[in-house]
């Protein structure tokens, strides 16, 4: 069996996930991710579109960084789904995030988008400290 070098494939895969992460920050310039800017802007103008009947899991930049460190340090290989271990209603997550950021609750304009977009890991070797739930992600983002 030929194995690819541990430092390249998992790291590249995790970087791809980072680019799709809804609430990450870009550390080199400390710019806020566009989706988080959208939440802040919606609160400032007093209204914001949210998806109804849509469920998803979430991820933060810190969670991805910790996951990368674990993969490299422990010399793991394979497929890694990095994200919260729970699936929550999108509107609820946005509401909790607004509260954690101490922003004024805007009027929500509902867009009916039924469905689920979540990737949950089936691996049993992931340390408990890397298994964040949505509440932990909201708390982390609120502290930033």
Briefly characterize the structure.
The chain has 144 residues and is of the alpha+beta class. The chain is built from 5 helices and 5 strands, in the order H-E-E-H-E-H-E-H-E-H.
Give me some keywords for this one:
144 residues, alpha+beta, 3-stranded mixed sheet, 40% helix, globular, disordered N terminus
Description of the structure:
There is one protein chain. The chain is of the alpha+beta class and 144 residues long. It has one domain (9-143). Helix content is 40%, strand content 19%. It contains 5 helices and 5 strands. The chain has helices at residues 9-20, 34-45, 61-73, 90-100, 134-143, and strands spanning 25-26, 31-32, 47-56, 88-89, 107-117. The strands form 2 sheets. Strands 4-3-5 form a 3-stranded mixed β-sheet. Strands 1-2 form a two-stranded antiparallel sheet. The radius of gyration is 16 Å and the shape is globular.
Could you describe the largest sheet, including whether it forms a barrel?
3 strands, mixed
Q: Specify the number of helices.
A: 5
Nearest-integer average pLDDT: 83
How many individual β-strands? 5
Low-confidence stretches: 1-21, 24-29
Taken together, the total number of domains comes to 1
Give the end-to-end Cα distance, rounded to a whole number of Å: 44 Å
* Helix content percent band: 40-55%
The dominant shape is: globular
What pattern of helices and strands is seen along the backbone?
A: HEEHEHEHEH
Gyration radius (Cα, Å) is 16 Å
Strands of the widest sheet, in order across it, are 4-3-5
Strand content: 15-25%
Give the helix/strand class.
Answer: alpha+beta
């Amino acid at each position: 069996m030929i194995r690819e070098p541990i430092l390249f494939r998992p790291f590249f895969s995790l970087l791809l996930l980072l680019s799709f992460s809804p609430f990450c920050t870009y550390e080199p310039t400390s710019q806020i991710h566009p989706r988080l800017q959208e939440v802040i802007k919606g609160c400032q103008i007093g209204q914001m579109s949210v998806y109804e009947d849509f469920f998803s899991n979430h991820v933060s930049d810190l969670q991805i960084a910790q996951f990368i460190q674990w993969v490299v340090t422990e010399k793991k290989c394979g497929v890694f789904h990095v994200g919260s271990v729970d699936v929550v209603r999108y509107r609820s997550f946005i509401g909790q995030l607004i509260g954690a950021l101490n922003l004024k609750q805007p009027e929500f304009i509902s867009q009916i988008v039924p469905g689920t977009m979540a990737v949950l890991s089936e691996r049993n070797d992931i340390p408990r400290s890397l298994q964040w739930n949505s509440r932990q992600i909201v708390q982390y983002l609120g502290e930033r």
